Amino acid sequence: MMRLFVALLAVCCHSCSASLTGFIFNQKLDHFTAGNNRTFPQRYWVVDDHWNKSSSAPVLLYLGLAAPFNGGMASYGIFGPALIEHSALGVGIENRYYGRSLAEDMLKLENLQYLTFEQSLEDTKAIQDAIKKNYSIPNLKWITFGASYSGMKSVIHRVTMPDRVFAAFGSSAPVNFQYDMPNYLGHVGEVIRDDQRGGSQTCYDNVREAFAIVDSYLNSNQLDVLRTDFNICSSSNATDDKEKFAIARYLSGLIADVNQYSFSNPAINTYAGICRPFTRPGVQPYDVLKKMLADSSPETCATISYQALLDDLNKWSNGINDWEEYDKDSGGRSWGFEICNNMGFNVYCNTTKGCPMSNFASQLGQSAMCQDAFGISDQQMRANSAKFLKTYGGANPLTTRLLLTHGAVDCGYPYEMNTTVENKEIYSFTTAYVGHVVDLNPATGYEPVALYETRKAVAQVLQKWVQDAKTAGSSQTYLSSVTIVFLVFFYSLY
Ligand SMILES: *[C@@H]1O[C@H](CO)[C@@H](O)[C@H](O)[C@H]1NC(C)=O
Ligand SMILES: *[C@@H]1O[C@H](CO)[C@@H](O)[C@H](O)[C@H]1NC(C)=O
Ligand SMILES: *[C@@H]1O[C@H](CO)[C@@H](O)[C@H](O)[C@H]1NC(C)=O
Ligand SMILES: *[C@@H]1O[C@H](CO)[C@@H](O)[C@H](O)[C@H]1NC(C)=O
Ligand SMILES: *[C@@H]1O[C@H](CO)[C@@H](O)[C@H](O)[C@H]1NC(C)=O
Ligand SMILES: *[C@@H]1O[C@H](CO)[C@@H](O)[C@H](O)[C@H]1NC(C)=O
Protein backbone atom coordinates (compact mmCIF):
# COMPACT_ATOMS: atom_id res chain seq x y z
CA MET A 1 0.00 0.00 0.00
CA MET A 2 2.56 2.49 -1.07
CA ARG A 3 0.34 5.47 -1.43
CA LEU A 4 -1.90 5.01 1.52
CA PHE A 5 -1.91 7.92 3.90
CA VAL A 6 -0.43 10.58 1.66
CA ALA A 7 -3.22 13.03 1.72
CA LEU A 8 -3.19 15.06 -1.41
CA LEU A 9 -4.59 18.16 0.17
CA ALA A 10 -6.94 19.56 -2.35
CA VAL A 11 -6.19 23.18 -2.92
CA CYS A 12 -9.52 24.80 -3.08
CA CYS A 13 -8.85 28.46 -2.96
CA HIS A 14 -12.48 29.56 -3.00
CA SER A 15 -12.32 30.57 0.64
CA CYS A 16 -8.83 31.96 0.53
CA SER A 17 -8.23 35.59 -0.04
CA ALA A 18 -4.58 35.60 1.00
CA SER A 19 -2.03 36.40 -1.60
CA LEU A 20 0.80 34.02 -1.85
CA THR A 21 4.34 34.94 -2.78
CA GLY A 22 6.50 32.08 -4.02
CA PHE A 23 10.27 32.04 -3.79
CA ILE A 24 13.08 29.73 -4.70
CA PHE A 25 15.81 29.03 -2.20
CA ASN A 26 19.20 27.92 -3.42
CA GLN A 27 19.43 24.98 -1.04
CA LYS A 28 22.50 22.86 -0.29
CA LEU A 29 21.98 19.31 -1.50
CA ASP A 30 24.27 17.88 1.18
CA HIS A 31 24.42 19.77 4.45
CA PHE A 32 26.83 17.37 6.06
CA THR A 33 29.81 17.01 3.74
CA ALA A 34 32.15 19.96 3.81
CA GLY A 35 33.20 20.85 0.29
CA ASN A 36 30.05 19.53 -1.37
CA ASN A 37 28.69 22.84 -2.56
CA ARG A 38 26.02 21.53 -4.88
CA THR A 39 22.65 23.21 -4.56
CA PHE A 40 19.11 22.61 -5.83
CA PRO A 41 16.12 24.96 -6.12
CA GLN A 42 13.76 24.57 -3.17
CA ARG A 43 10.38 26.27 -3.27
CA TYR A 44 8.85 28.15 -0.38
CA TRP A 45 6.00 30.60 0.03
CA VAL A 46 5.24 33.53 2.27
CA VAL A 47 1.81 34.91 3.19
CA ASP A 48 1.98 38.28 4.90
CA ASP A 49 -1.50 39.69 4.25
CA HIS A 50 -2.56 39.39 7.86
CA TRP A 51 0.80 39.93 9.42
CA ASN A 52 1.16 42.59 12.09
CA LYS A 53 4.83 42.63 12.76
CA SER A 54 4.57 44.64 15.95
CA SER A 55 2.23 42.06 17.47
CA SER A 56 5.26 39.73 17.94
CA ALA A 57 3.10 36.74 16.98
CA PRO A 58 5.12 33.63 16.15
CA VAL A 59 5.74 32.75 12.53
CA LEU A 60 3.51 29.85 11.45
CA LEU A 61 5.40 27.41 9.25
CA TYR A 62 3.56 24.81 7.17
CA LEU A 63 5.74 21.86 6.13
CA GLY A 64 5.00 20.41 2.70
CA LEU A 65 3.69 16.94 2.03
CA ALA A 66 5.35 13.86 0.60
CA ALA A 67 3.97 15.09 -2.72
CA PRO A 68 4.06 18.28 -4.76
CA PHE A 69 3.08 21.26 -2.64
CA ASN A 70 1.98 24.56 -4.07
CA GLY A 71 1.94 26.69 -0.99
CA GLY A 72 -1.85 26.88 -0.67
CA MET A 73 -1.72 26.48 3.11
CA ALA A 74 -3.52 29.76 3.83
CA SER A 75 -6.72 28.07 2.61
CA TYR A 76 -6.29 25.04 4.91
CA GLY A 77 -8.38 24.57 8.01
CA ILE A 78 -6.67 25.41 11.33
CA PHE A 79 -3.63 26.99 9.63
CA GLY A 80 -5.51 29.66 7.64
CA PRO A 81 -7.71 30.76 10.57
CA ALA A 82 -4.66 30.86 12.89
CA LEU A 83 -2.84 33.21 10.51
CA ILE A 84 -5.77 35.62 10.60
CA GLU A 85 -6.55 35.32 14.29
CA HIS A 86 -2.99 35.94 15.39
CA SER A 87 -1.95 38.36 12.63
CA ALA A 88 0.95 36.05 11.95
CA LEU A 89 3.43 35.68 9.14
CA GLY A 90 2.82 32.42 7.27
CA VAL A 91 5.49 30.37 5.55
CA GLY A 92 5.22 27.12 3.58
CA ILE A 93 8.14 24.97 2.47
CA GLU A 94 8.03 22.26 -0.18
CA ASN A 95 9.98 19.18 0.88
CA ARG A 96 13.17 18.42 -0.97
CA TYR A 97 12.63 15.80 -3.71
CA TYR A 98 8.92 16.59 -4.17
CA GLY A 99 7.18 18.80 -6.68
CA ARG A 100 9.67 21.21 -8.21
CA SER A 101 12.04 21.18 -5.26
CA LEU A 102 14.69 19.12 -6.95
CA ALA A 103 17.07 19.07 -9.91
CA GLU A 104 16.69 16.79 -12.91
CA ASP A 105 19.21 14.16 -11.77
CA MET A 106 18.18 13.97 -8.13
CA LEU A 107 15.87 10.98 -8.56
CA LYS A 108 18.74 8.85 -9.82
CA LEU A 109 19.49 6.10 -7.32
CA GLU A 110 22.91 7.49 -6.40
CA ASN A 111 21.36 10.85 -5.51
CA LEU A 112 18.50 9.53 -3.37
CA GLN A 113 20.98 9.31 -0.48
CA TYR A 114 20.28 13.00 0.16
CA LEU A 115 16.59 12.37 0.73
CA THR A 116 16.73 12.00 4.50
CA PHE A 117 14.96 13.61 7.46
CA GLU A 118 18.31 14.97 8.68
CA GLN A 119 18.92 16.81 5.40
CA SER A 120 15.38 18.11 5.28
CA LEU A 121 15.62 19.50 8.82
CA GLU A 122 18.72 21.42 7.74
CA ASP A 123 16.73 22.78 4.78
CA THR A 124 14.21 24.22 7.21
CA LYS A 125 16.96 25.85 9.25
CA ALA A 126 18.47 27.51 6.18
CA ILE A 127 15.14 28.89 4.98
CA GLN A 128 14.20 29.95 8.49
CA ASP A 129 17.48 31.89 8.78
CA ALA A 130 16.91 33.56 5.43
CA ILE A 131 13.40 34.67 6.41
CA LYS A 132 14.50 35.90 9.83
CA LYS A 133 17.15 37.98 8.15
CA ASN A 134 15.04 39.29 5.29
CA TYR A 135 12.17 40.36 7.54
CA SER A 136 14.42 41.37 10.43
CA ILE A 137 12.67 39.10 12.90
CA PRO A 138 15.55 37.50 14.81
CA ASN A 139 13.51 36.94 17.95
CA LEU A 140 10.11 35.84 16.74
CA LYS A 141 9.26 32.27 17.71
CA TRP A 142 8.12 29.70 15.16
CA ILE A 143 5.34 27.12 15.33
CA THR A 144 5.38 24.29 12.79
CA PHE A 145 2.29 22.74 11.18
CA GLY A 146 1.77 19.69 9.04
CA ALA A 147 -0.59 16.89 8.17
CA SER A 148 0.02 13.16 7.77
CA TYR A 149 3.67 12.75 6.71
CA SER A 150 4.32 16.44 7.25
CA GLY A 151 2.51 16.31 10.61
CA MET A 152 5.05 13.71 11.63
CA LYS A 153 7.78 15.98 10.27
CA SER A 154 6.33 18.84 12.30
CA VAL A 155 6.68 16.78 15.50
CA ILE A 156 10.21 15.81 14.49
CA HIS A 157 11.11 19.47 13.99
CA ARG A 158 10.05 20.21 17.56
CA VAL A 159 11.84 17.13 18.93
CA THR A 160 15.12 17.85 17.18
CA MET A 161 15.32 21.64 17.26
CA PRO A 162 13.43 22.95 20.28
CA ASP A 163 15.36 26.21 20.15
CA ARG A 164 14.05 26.93 16.65
CA VAL A 165 10.57 25.48 16.93
CA PHE A 166 8.51 26.69 19.87
CA ALA A 167 5.63 24.24 19.41
CA ALA A 168 4.32 21.82 16.78
CA PHE A 169 0.93 20.92 15.37
CA GLY A 170 0.35 17.67 13.47
CA SER A 171 -2.90 16.40 11.97
CA SER A 172 -3.06 12.59 11.59
CA ALA A 173 0.68 12.36 12.23
CA PRO A 174 1.79 8.71 12.20
CA VAL A 175 4.77 9.23 14.51
CA ASN A 176 4.74 5.60 15.57
CA PHE A 177 4.82 3.84 12.20
CA GLN A 178 6.52 0.46 12.53
CA TYR A 179 8.08 -2.19 10.39
CA ASP A 180 5.30 -4.47 11.64
CA MET A 181 1.99 -2.73 11.34
CA PRO A 182 -0.84 -5.14 10.66
CA ASN A 183 -3.23 -2.85 12.52
CA TYR A 184 -3.16 -0.39 9.65
CA LEU A 185 -5.31 -2.57 7.42
CA GLY A 186 -6.66 -4.29 10.52
CA HIS A 187 -8.19 -0.97 11.56
CA VAL A 188 -10.32 -1.01 8.41
CA GLY A 189 -11.87 -4.22 9.74
CA GLU A 190 -12.65 -2.59 13.06
CA VAL A 191 -14.28 0.37 11.36
CA ILE A 192 -16.50 -1.55 8.96
CA ARG A 193 -17.58 -3.79 11.84
CA ASP A 194 -18.58 -0.88 14.07
CA ASP A 195 -22.18 0.26 13.81
CA GLN A 196 -21.27 3.59 15.42
CA ARG A 197 -19.18 4.34 12.36
CA GLY A 198 -21.53 3.21 9.65
CA GLY A 199 -20.43 -0.44 9.67
CA SER A 200 -21.88 -3.64 11.07
CA GLN A 201 -20.90 -7.23 11.75
CA THR A 202 -22.83 -8.19 8.60
CA CYS A 203 -20.86 -5.68 6.58
CA TYR A 204 -17.59 -7.07 7.91
CA ASP A 205 -18.65 -10.67 7.30
CA ASN A 206 -19.74 -9.89 3.75
CA VAL A 207 -16.56 -8.02 2.91
CA ARG A 208 -14.67 -11.02 4.28
CA GLU A 209 -16.82 -13.33 2.15
CA ALA A 210 -16.07 -11.34 -1.02
CA PHE A 211 -12.35 -11.43 -0.32
CA ALA A 212 -12.45 -15.12 0.58
CA ILE A 213 -13.47 -15.68 -3.04
CA VAL A 214 -10.74 -13.36 -4.30
CA ASP A 215 -8.26 -15.29 -2.16
CA SER A 216 -9.47 -18.66 -3.37
CA TYR A 217 -8.74 -17.59 -6.97
CA LEU A 218 -5.33 -16.29 -5.94
CA ASN A 219 -4.64 -19.48 -4.03
CA SER A 220 -5.45 -21.69 -6.98
CA ASN A 221 -3.48 -19.50 -9.42
CA GLN A 222 -6.65 -18.48 -11.27
CA LEU A 223 -5.50 -14.91 -11.78
CA ASP A 224 -7.25 -14.89 -15.16
CA VAL A 225 -10.65 -15.07 -13.49
CA LEU A 226 -9.83 -12.02 -11.39
CA ARG A 227 -8.53 -10.19 -14.45
CA THR A 228 -11.81 -10.72 -16.21
CA ASP A 229 -13.97 -9.94 -13.19
CA PHE A 230 -12.10 -6.76 -12.30
CA ASN A 231 -11.12 -5.48 -15.74
CA ILE A 232 -7.38 -5.96 -15.38
CA CYS A 233 -5.63 -6.08 -18.73
CA SER A 234 -2.05 -7.02 -17.98
CA SER A 235 -1.27 -10.71 -17.83
CA SER A 236 1.47 -11.97 -15.59
CA ASN A 237 2.94 -15.09 -14.03
CA ALA A 238 0.01 -16.71 -12.23
CA THR A 239 2.16 -18.62 -9.76
CA ASP A 240 4.23 -15.67 -8.63
CA ASP A 241 3.35 -14.41 -5.15
CA LYS A 242 4.40 -10.88 -6.09
CA GLU A 243 1.76 -10.81 -8.85
CA LYS A 244 -0.80 -12.08 -6.36
CA PHE A 245 0.26 -9.29 -4.02
CA ALA A 246 -0.23 -6.69 -6.76
CA ILE A 247 -3.80 -7.82 -7.41
CA ALA A 248 -4.62 -8.25 -3.69
CA ARG A 249 -3.33 -4.75 -3.02
CA TYR A 250 -5.38 -3.26 -5.84
CA LEU A 251 -8.62 -4.89 -4.74
CA SER A 252 -8.04 -4.29 -1.02
CA GLY A 253 -7.51 -0.63 -1.84
CA LEU A 254 -11.15 -0.41 -2.94
CA ILE A 255 -12.02 -0.64 0.75
CA ALA A 256 -8.87 0.52 2.53
CA ASP A 257 -8.15 3.70 0.62
CA VAL A 258 -11.57 5.09 1.40
CA ASN A 259 -10.45 6.81 4.58
CA GLN A 260 -8.17 8.96 2.47
CA TYR A 261 -11.06 10.49 0.64
CA SER A 262 -13.08 11.40 3.66
CA PHE A 263 -10.86 14.48 3.57
CA SER A 264 -12.83 15.92 0.72
CA ASN A 265 -16.15 15.78 2.47
CA PRO A 266 -16.29 15.00 6.18
CA ALA A 267 -20.07 15.21 6.12
CA ILE A 268 -20.27 11.95 4.25
CA ASN A 269 -19.43 8.80 6.14
CA THR A 270 -17.71 6.93 3.37
CA TYR A 271 -17.65 3.65 5.24
CA ALA A 272 -21.41 3.73 5.52
CA GLY A 273 -21.34 4.17 1.74
CA ILE A 274 -19.31 0.99 1.42
CA CYS A 275 -21.33 -1.01 3.88
CA ARG A 276 -24.72 -0.16 2.39
CA PRO A 277 -24.34 -2.25 -0.78
CA PHE A 278 -22.56 -5.02 1.12
CA THR A 279 -25.47 -5.43 3.51
CA ARG A 280 -28.30 -5.30 0.99
CA PRO A 281 -30.28 -8.55 1.32
CA GLY A 282 -29.97 -11.07 -1.47
CA VAL A 283 -26.79 -9.72 -3.05
CA GLN A 284 -23.60 -11.70 -3.45
CA PRO A 285 -20.72 -9.89 -1.71
CA TYR A 286 -18.31 -10.79 -4.52
CA ASP A 287 -20.66 -9.15 -7.03
CA VAL A 288 -20.75 -6.02 -4.88
CA LEU A 289 -16.95 -5.85 -5.01
CA LYS A 290 -17.07 -6.24 -8.80
CA LYS A 291 -19.59 -3.46 -9.04
CA MET A 292 -17.54 -1.19 -6.78
CA LEU A 293 -14.62 -1.59 -9.15
CA ALA A 294 -16.75 -1.04 -12.21
CA ASP A 295 -18.22 2.13 -10.68
CA SER A 296 -14.89 3.54 -9.57
CA SER A 297 -12.68 2.99 -12.59
CA PRO A 298 -12.74 4.18 -16.17
CA GLU A 299 -13.91 2.05 -19.11
CA THR A 300 -10.39 1.02 -20.01
CA CYS A 301 -8.82 -1.91 -18.28
CA ALA A 302 -6.23 -1.34 -15.55
CA THR A 303 -2.60 -2.38 -15.65
CA ILE A 304 -2.11 -4.18 -12.37
CA SER A 305 1.08 -6.13 -11.96
CA TYR A 306 4.12 -6.21 -9.75
CA GLN A 307 6.10 -4.71 -12.61
CA ALA A 308 3.66 -1.80 -12.83
CA LEU A 309 4.19 -1.11 -9.13
CA LEU A 310 7.93 -1.15 -9.68
CA ASP A 311 7.64 1.05 -12.76
CA ASP A 312 6.00 3.70 -10.60
CA LEU A 313 8.88 3.57 -8.15
CA ASN A 314 11.49 3.59 -10.89
CA LYS A 315 9.98 6.42 -12.85
CA TRP A 316 12.58 9.16 -13.43
CA SER A 317 15.39 6.94 -12.12
CA ASN A 318 17.38 7.99 -15.21
CA GLY A 319 16.71 11.64 -14.52
CA ILE A 320 13.82 13.94 -15.34
CA ASN A 321 13.78 14.58 -19.07
CA ASP A 322 10.26 15.90 -19.44
CA TRP A 323 9.19 18.40 -16.80
CA GLU A 324 5.63 18.68 -18.10
CA GLU A 325 5.18 14.95 -17.78
CA TYR A 326 6.93 14.98 -14.42
CA ASP A 327 4.54 17.64 -13.11
CA LYS A 328 1.65 15.17 -13.46
CA ASP A 329 3.44 12.85 -11.06
CA SER A 330 2.61 12.73 -7.37
CA GLY A 331 6.10 11.99 -6.10
CA GLY A 332 5.85 8.18 -5.99
CA ARG A 333 9.56 7.47 -6.31
CA SER A 334 10.59 9.81 -3.50
CA TRP A 335 7.79 8.63 -1.26
CA GLY A 336 8.65 4.97 -1.94
CA PHE A 337 12.25 5.66 -1.00
CA GLU A 338 11.20 7.37 2.21
CA ILE A 339 9.09 4.37 3.17
CA CYS A 340 11.95 1.94 2.59
CA ASN A 341 14.86 4.05 3.74
CA ASN A 342 13.69 6.70 6.18
CA MET A 343 10.88 4.96 8.03
CA GLY A 344 11.08 1.30 7.05
CA PHE A 345 7.41 0.74 7.58
CA ASN A 346 5.48 -2.12 6.15
CA VAL A 347 1.73 -2.09 5.77
CA TYR A 348 0.29 -5.57 5.57
CA CYS A 349 -2.33 -7.89 6.91
CA ASN A 350 -1.68 -10.17 9.84
CA THR A 351 -2.86 -13.39 8.28
CA THR A 352 -2.90 -15.20 11.64
CA LYS A 353 -5.24 -12.66 13.11
CA GLY A 354 -7.32 -12.50 9.95
CA CYS A 355 -7.31 -9.76 7.34
CA PRO A 356 -10.42 -7.76 6.68
CA MET A 357 -9.50 -7.82 2.99
CA SER A 358 -7.16 -10.11 1.09
CA ASN A 359 -4.69 -12.33 2.92
CA PHE A 360 -2.35 -11.90 -0.04
CA ALA A 361 -1.72 -8.26 0.86
CA SER A 362 1.14 -9.61 2.96
CA GLN A 363 4.45 -8.00 3.92
CA LEU A 364 6.17 -9.74 1.04
CA GLY A 365 5.20 -7.16 -1.57
CA GLN A 366 6.48 -4.07 0.19
CA SER A 367 9.76 -5.76 1.09
CA ALA A 368 10.23 -6.99 -2.46
CA MET A 369 9.58 -3.49 -3.83
CA CYS A 370 12.15 -1.91 -1.50
CA GLN A 371 14.68 -4.49 -2.64
CA ASP A 372 13.91 -4.34 -6.35
CA ALA A 373 13.56 -0.57 -6.68
CA PHE A 374 16.18 0.68 -4.23
CA GLY A 375 18.32 -2.32 -3.27
CA ILE A 376 17.11 -2.01 0.34
CA SER A 377 16.78 -5.44 1.96
CA ASP A 378 14.10 -6.53 4.37
CA GLN A 379 16.72 -6.63 7.11
CA GLN A 380 17.73 -3.03 6.34
CA MET A 381 14.09 -1.95 6.40
CA ARG A 382 13.75 -3.35 9.89
CA ALA A 383 16.91 -1.55 10.97
CA ASN A 384 15.70 1.69 9.36
CA SER A 385 12.43 1.43 11.24
CA ALA A 386 14.20 0.83 14.55
CA LYS A 387 16.46 3.84 13.93
CA PHE A 388 13.52 6.07 13.00
CA LEU A 389 11.61 5.13 16.16
CA LYS A 390 14.66 5.48 18.39
CA THR A 391 15.76 8.82 16.94
CA TYR A 392 12.40 10.56 17.05
CA GLY A 393 10.71 8.75 19.93
CA GLY A 394 7.78 6.98 18.24
CA ALA A 395 4.71 7.24 20.46
CA ASN A 396 6.76 8.84 23.25
CA PRO A 397 8.65 11.76 21.76
CA LEU A 398 10.93 13.44 24.30
CA THR A 399 9.61 16.95 24.04
CA THR A 400 6.91 19.39 25.09
CA ARG A 401 4.28 21.53 23.33
CA LEU A 402 2.79 19.17 20.79
CA LEU A 403 -0.73 19.45 19.45
CA LEU A 404 -1.96 16.36 17.65
CA THR A 405 -5.31 15.69 16.07
CA HIS A 406 -6.63 12.38 14.80
CA GLY A 407 -9.61 10.99 12.95
CA ALA A 408 -10.62 7.68 14.49
CA VAL A 409 -11.59 6.01 11.21
CA ASP A 410 -8.14 6.65 9.73
CA CYS A 411 -6.04 3.50 9.05
CA GLY A 412 -3.02 5.29 10.49
CA TYR A 413 -4.81 6.06 13.75
CA PRO A 414 -3.42 3.06 15.65
CA TYR A 415 0.06 4.45 14.96
CA GLU A 416 -0.50 8.02 16.03
CA MET A 417 0.27 9.45 19.45
CA ASN A 418 -3.01 9.40 21.28
CA THR A 419 -2.22 10.47 24.83
CA THR A 420 -2.36 13.88 26.43
CA VAL A 421 0.41 14.75 28.89
CA GLU A 422 -0.78 17.96 30.56
CA ASN A 423 2.43 18.89 32.34
CA LYS A 424 4.33 18.73 29.05
CA GLU A 425 1.62 20.54 27.14
CA ILE A 426 1.23 17.57 24.85
CA TYR A 427 -2.37 17.47 23.64
CA SER A 428 -4.02 14.76 21.64
CA PHE A 429 -7.53 15.26 20.25
CA THR A 430 -9.33 12.39 18.57
CA THR A 431 -12.43 13.10 16.53
CA ALA A 432 -14.67 10.07 16.28
CA TYR A 433 -16.15 9.15 12.89
CA VAL A 434 -13.83 11.23 10.71
CA GLY A 435 -10.92 10.17 8.55
CA HIS A 436 -7.44 11.26 7.64
CA VAL A 437 -6.41 14.95 8.07
CA VAL A 438 -10.03 16.05 7.89
CA ASP A 439 -9.44 19.10 10.09
CA LEU A 440 -7.16 20.58 7.44
CA ASN A 441 -10.27 21.06 5.36
CA PRO A 442 -11.71 24.55 5.73
CA ALA A 443 -14.47 24.51 8.34
CA THR A 444 -17.96 24.12 6.91
CA GLY A 445 -21.41 24.49 8.40
CA TYR A 446 -22.31 20.89 7.63
CA GLU A 447 -19.38 19.16 9.26
CA PRO A 448 -19.81 16.88 12.29
CA VAL A 449 -20.20 18.67 15.62
CA ALA A 450 -17.27 16.66 17.00
CA LEU A 451 -15.01 18.20 14.37
CA TYR A 452 -16.21 21.67 15.27
CA GLU A 453 -15.33 20.88 18.90
CA THR A 454 -11.86 19.70 17.90
CA ARG A 455 -11.24 22.91 15.98
CA LYS A 456 -12.27 24.90 19.07
CA ALA A 457 -9.96 22.91 21.35
CA VAL A 458 -7.08 23.33 18.89
CA ALA A 459 -7.65 27.07 18.65
CA GLN A 460 -7.53 27.38 22.45
CA VAL A 461 -4.18 25.63 22.72
CA LEU A 462 -2.76 27.69 19.87
CA GLN A 463 -4.04 30.85 21.52
CA LYS A 464 -2.10 30.07 24.67
CA TRP A 465 1.07 29.17 22.79
CA VAL A 466 0.93 32.32 20.71
CA GLN A 467 0.76 34.33 23.95
CA ASP A 468 3.62 32.34 25.48
CA ALA A 469 5.65 32.73 22.30
CA LYS A 470 5.11 36.49 22.35
CA THR A 471 6.34 36.67 25.93
CA ALA A 472 9.31 34.43 25.21
CA GLY A 473 10.06 36.27 21.99
CA SER A 474 10.08 39.68 23.60
CA SER A 475 12.34 38.74 26.52
CA GLN A 476 15.21 40.06 24.42
CA THR A 477 13.28 43.33 24.31
CA TYR A 478 15.95 45.85 23.65
CA LEU A 479 17.11 44.43 20.35
CA SER A 480 13.69 43.50 19.01
CA SER A 481 12.03 46.80 19.83
CA VAL A 482 14.84 48.72 18.18
CA THR A 483 14.55 46.58 15.09
CA ILE A 484 10.80 46.93 15.02
CA VAL A 485 10.89 50.69 15.33
CA PHE A 486 13.41 50.87 12.56
CA LEU A 487 11.37 48.69 10.26
CA VAL A 488 8.12 50.45 10.87
CA PHE A 489 9.87 53.59 9.83
CA PHE A 490 11.43 51.88 6.87
CA TYR A 491 8.11 50.52 5.64
CA SER A 492 6.51 53.92 5.87
CA LEU A 493 8.80 55.07 3.09
CA TYR A 494 6.91 52.86 0.62
C1 LIG B 1 32.69 25.29 -1.33
O1 LIG B 1 32.36 26.44 -0.55
C2 LIG B 1 33.39 26.81 0.34
C3 LIG B 1 32.87 27.93 1.22
O2 LIG B 1 32.12 28.83 0.48
C4 LIG B 1 34.61 27.21 -0.47
O3 LIG B 1 35.67 27.56 0.41
C5 LIG B 1 35.06 26.02 -1.32
O4 LIG B 1 36.11 26.40 -2.17
C6 LIG B 1 33.92 25.51 -2.18
N1 LIG B 1 34.30 24.26 -2.83
C7 LIG B 1 34.11 24.02 -4.10
C8 LIG B 1 34.53 22.66 -4.57
O5 LIG B 1 33.63 24.85 -4.86
C1 LIG C 1 -0.50 45.43 15.75
O1 LIG C 1 -0.04 44.96 16.99
C2 LIG C 1 0.20 46.01 17.93
C3 LIG C 1 0.86 45.39 19.17
O2 LIG C 1 0.06 44.34 19.66
C4 LIG C 1 -1.10 46.73 18.24
O3 LIG C 1 -0.86 47.77 19.15
C5 LIG C 1 -1.67 47.27 16.93
O4 LIG C 1 -2.93 47.83 17.18
C6 LIG C 1 -1.79 46.17 15.90
N1 LIG C 1 -2.17 46.74 14.62
C7 LIG C 1 -3.25 46.36 13.97
C8 LIG C 1 -3.48 47.04 12.66
O5 LIG C 1 -4.01 45.51 14.41
C1 LIG D 1 11.93 40.08 1.86
O1 LIG D 1 11.16 41.03 2.56
C2 LIG D 1 10.47 41.96 1.74
C3 LIG D 1 9.77 42.93 2.64
O2 LIG D 1 10.70 43.53 3.47
C4 LIG D 1 9.49 41.24 0.84
O3 LIG D 1 8.84 42.15 -0.01
C5 LIG D 1 10.22 40.20 0.03
O4 LIG D 1 9.28 39.47 -0.71
C6 LIG D 1 10.99 39.28 0.95
N1 LIG D 1 11.76 38.33 0.19
C7 LIG D 1 11.85 37.04 0.54
C8 LIG D 1 12.72 36.21 -0.32
O5 LIG D 1 11.27 36.57 1.50
C1 LIG E 1 6.59 -17.78 -12.31
O1 LIG E 1 6.86 -17.52 -10.93
C2 LIG E 1 7.38 -18.64 -10.23
C3 LIG E 1 7.44 -18.26 -8.76
O2 LIG E 1 8.17 -17.06 -8.58
C4 LIG E 1 8.71 -19.04 -10.84
O3 LIG E 1 9.23 -20.16 -10.16
C5 LIG E 1 8.54 -19.34 -12.31
O4 LIG E 1 9.80 -19.56 -12.91
C6 LIG E 1 7.86 -18.16 -13.02
N1 LIG E 1 7.55 -18.55 -14.39
C7 LIG E 1 7.90 -17.79 -15.43
C8 LIG E 1 7.46 -18.29 -16.77
O5 LIG E 1 8.55 -16.76 -15.31
C1 LIG F 1 -0.65 -11.56 14.39
O1 LIG F 1 -1.77 -12.03 15.08
C2 LIG F 1 -1.47 -13.05 16.01
C3 LIG F 1 -2.80 -13.57 16.57
O2 LIG F 1 -3.60 -12.54 17.07
C4 LIG F 1 -0.56 -12.47 17.08
O3 LIG F 1 -0.20 -13.49 18.01
C5 LIG F 1 0.70 -11.94 16.43
O4 LIG F 1 1.51 -11.31 17.39
C6 LIG F 1 0.34 -10.94 15.36
N1 LIG F 1 1.53 -10.49 14.64
C7 LIG F 1 1.89 -9.22 14.59
C8 LIG F 1 3.14 -8.93 13.83
O5 LIG F 1 1.25 -8.33 15.12
C1 LIG G 1 -3.26 4.63 21.96
O1 LIG G 1 -2.06 4.17 21.38
C2 LIG G 1 -1.56 2.98 21.95
C3 LIG G 1 -0.28 2.61 21.23
O2 LIG G 1 0.56 3.69 21.06
C4 LIG G 1 -2.57 1.86 21.81
O3 LIG G 1 -2.10 0.69 22.46
C5 LIG G 1 -3.90 2.29 22.40
O4 LIG G 1 -4.86 1.31 22.13
C6 LIG G 1 -4.36 3.60 21.80
N1 LIG G 1 -5.58 4.07 22.44
C7 LIG G 1 -6.67 4.40 21.75
C8 LIG G 1 -7.83 4.88 22.57
O5 LIG G 1 -6.74 4.34 20.55
TrEMBL record:
A biological process from GO: proteolysis
A single Gene Ontology CC term: lysosome
Superkingdom classification of source: Eukaryota
Pfam family of the protein (one): Peptidase_S28
InterPro entries in UniProt: AB_hydrolase_fold, Peptidase_S28, Ser_carbopepase_S28_SKS
Keyword Nucleotide-binding: no
GO molecular function: dipeptidyl-peptidase activity; serine-type exopeptidase activity
Signal peptide location: 1-18
Keywords: Glycoprotein, Hydrolase, Protease, Signal
Family (UniProt): Belongs to the peptidase S28 family.
Protein name per Swiss-Prot or TrEMBL: Uncharacterized protein
